[in-house]
TrEMBL record:
Gene source species: Autumnicola patrickiae
Protein name: Delta-aminolevulinic acid dehydratase
SMART domains: ALAD (SM01004)
Catalytic activity reported: 2 5-aminolevulinate = porphobilinogen + 2 H2O + H(+)
Alphabetized UniProt keyword annotations: Heme biosynthesis, Lyase, Porphyrin biosynthesis
EC number(s) given by UniProt: 4.2.1.24
Source species, domain of life: Bacteria
Matching SUPFAM superfamilies: Aldolase
Keyword DNA repair annotated: no
Gene designation per UniProt: hemB
Entry's Gene Ontology molecular function annotations: porphobilinogen synthase activity
Assembly description: Homooctamer.
Pathway: Porphyrin-containing compound metabolism; protoporphyrin-IX biosynthesis; coproporphyrinogen-III from 5-aminolevulinate: step 1/4
Length: 327
């Protein structure tokens, strides 16, 4: 035998010397859930050890993230029911929870990169990412509101807006409005290949944002999010978003879609984000709780696999765990 592959695996020193992929704190974007109130740190039932924070505690949390070397956050807000409607009115409130959350983070840690979620679902009385009429999610009207929402976030101080809605043409609408209004440096991270996945359940618990069960209201998001069976379409969506002005593109969810991540990584020359979503988090937590999987090892293995597949950055609820494990 001339070639013995095991020579490169005889001990940790040689293994680490030839290791191709390493995760570092620089890889992570930390999703954060924000809620109205004071002194609130509410655990999300389907996401053990993950919380919604009121603004005062959000401030403490982002300081801790910064200390750990985590330099980017992605903000989501839980909107009280009484502020929800079918037009995204509250989403444009200059003094809304998101707008205040951006300022809170920037005040606490000015160097922290702040990205904001842009979609109507947390604000929608129907739990949809756009405006609903006649049993449909209106594309162009929704895109126009989403562009206004992006502008509002930019005015509040967001560094990047992150549209997670999947309306057609919304990146163009957003980029154009941001440019017209002088926000040349506000970036766009587009959820470009976002699949209609069953892994978003715990997130919808966290924000109370699931589509409502009512007559003439679509019960799922399949008319705008992509069919999990499709690959060519993921590339097409992504290339279009780049043409429309996206600075960073995204594949979401992570683990089930790593083939798409690699294809997109090979097809584009912009950073590729991967979102390891709430259901992926919940699965690991549940199995670990039962003693069926080794939590830390599985977390690191999955994150490494996401990066190996081609992720430039990873939005993950495990970001804090991961940096503690690798430090
Ligand atoms: C909605 C949005 C969702 C997520 C991010 N933004 C859920 C959905 O599309 O219903 C999911 C994130 C996760 O599951 O962690 N615009």
């Amino acid at each position: 035998m001339l070639i013995r592959n095991r020579r490169l695996r005889t001990g940790e020193a040689i293994r680490s010397l030839v290791r191709e992929t390493a995760i570092t704190p620089n890889d992570f974007l930390v999703p954060l859930f924000v809620v109205e109130g004071k002194n609130l740190k509410q655990e999300i039932a389907s996401m053990p050890n993950y919380y919604r924070y009121s603004l005062d505690l959000l401030e403490k949390e982002v300081k801790e993230l910064w200390r750990l070397g985590l330099k980017s956050v992605l903000l989501f807000v839980k909107v009280p029911n009484k502020l929800k409607d079918n037009a995204g009115t509250e989403a444009l409130n200059p003094d809304g929870l998101m707008q205040r959350a951006v300022k809170t983070v920037k005040n606490a840690v000015p160097e922290m990169l702040v990205m904001t979620d842009v979609a109507l679902d947390p604000y929608s009385s129907f739990g949809h990412d756009g405006i609903v009429a006649d049993g449909k999610i209106l594309n162009d009207d929704s895109a126009a509101v989403l562009a206004e929402m992006s502008l509002s976030h930019a005015k509040a101080g967001a560094d990047f807006v992150a549209p997670s809605d999947m309306m057609d043409g919304r990146i163009f609408e957003m980029r154009t409005l941001l440019e017209d209004e002088g926000f040349h440096d506000t970036g766009i991270m587009s959820y470009s290949a976002k699949f209609a996945s069953a892994f978003y359940g715990p997130f919808r618990d966290a924000l109370d944002s699931a589509p409502v069960d009512a007559k003439d209201i679509p019960k799922d998001k399949k008319t705008y999010q992509m069919d999990p069976a499709n690959r060519d379409e993921a590339i097409k969506e992504t290339l279009m978003d780049i043409q429309e002005g996206a600075d960073i593109v995204m594949v979401k969810p992570g683990l089930c879609y790593l083939d798409i991540v690699r294809d997109i990584k090979n097809a584009v020359n912009v950073p590729v984000a991967v979102y390891q979503v709430s259901g992926e988090y919940a699965m690991i937590k549940a199995a670990a709780e039962k003693g069926w999987l080794e939590h830390d090892a599985v977390v690191l293995e999955q994150l490494t696999a996401i990066k190996r597949a081609g992720a430039t950055l990873i939005a993950s609820y495990f970001a804090k765990d991961a940096v503690k494990l690798i430090s």
